[in-house]
Specification:
The chain is mainly α. The protein has one domain (about 15-185): Up-down Bundle (Ferritin), CATH 1.20.1260. The chain is built from seven helices and no strands. α5 packs antiparallel against α6. The two termini are about 25 Å apart.
């Protein structure tokens, strides 16, 4: 990917953080669930693509980091007396995943690029939380998280560059960031990461 970055095509509206801060407990539970699902997705990619030996070590590393983030978010939940709820469908993620093409290689490219875009949006929103949440411990947690998520967004693309023509990857990434902005524009605000 070189110097190119994973750029979003739209910014999160200021109303989003107001919605989150008005019901931070719900946001925290949703955030923990997102980290757990990110770990599960990475582990499933490893199982589905065992022949992609050049990227498996990085997928494992990312899965470990997502599990760590889940554990950290869960620790904040425990302190607040919160429990994990049932998985609710995530309209943002589901609309993006619906864009994944069929065909083994195309699906791998799209799943990883969608993960990259989701991580990038998560980074943007974690930064906003870090800048606005009153609790200092939470602010520090989300400050470290957004930096990690930006890195994850880039790692997905760099892994694909090892496996496929970078121009094909970058063109598809741009298409998906345009779609992602449209998806975001159509979603109602809720105390959730997406």
């Amino acid at each position: 990917m070189g110097t190119k970055s994973v750029d979003l095509q739209s910014a999160t509206p200021p109303e989003w953080i107001k919605t989150v801060l008005n019901d931070f407990d719900t946001f925290l539970v949703d955030h923990a669930n997102c980290e757990r699902k990110a770990n599960a997705l990475l582990m499933s990619m490893i199982a589905k693509y065992p022949d992609r030996t050049a990227i498996i070590p990085q997928l494992i590393e990312l899965a470990q980091e997502e599990l760590e983030h889940f554990a950290e978010a869960y620790a904040f939940m425990e302190r607040r007396g919160l429990r994990l709820g049932k998985d609710a469908p995530d309209p943002y993620v589901n609309q993006l995943l619906a864009q994944a093409r069929h065909g083994r290689d195309e699906r791998l490219i799209d799943r990883m690029l969608i993960s990259s875009v989701i991580e990038r949006r998560g980074a943007e929103r974690f930064r906003i939380v870090a800048e606005n949440v009153a609790d200092q411990e939470l602010a520090e947690f989300y400050d470290s998280l957004w930096k990690s998520e930006v890195k994850h967004a880039h790692v997905f693309v760099l892994m694909l560059h090892k496996e496929f023509n970078p121009q094909i990857v970058d063109t598809r990434l741009h298409e998906l960031t345009v779609i992602e902005a449209e998806v975001c524009a159509g979603l109602e605000l809720r105390p959730a990461l997406h």
